[in-house]
Amino acid sequence: MFRTQEANESQDEAKMQDLMFKLNIALFIGTIVAIRTAGSVMGDF
Prior knowledge:
The chain is mostly helical. Helix content is 96%, strand content 0%. It has one helix spanning 2-44. Keywords: Membrane, Transmembrane, Transmembrane helix.
């Protein structure tokens, strides 16, 4: 019983790490896009 619970917890932890990793990538890409968009808008003025 304890072993399955530990296995489930480590699986949930792995899912959370995967989610955080994807969120960080999305945030990173979003930041780059925002900077490039702002740069092109500033370039127009």
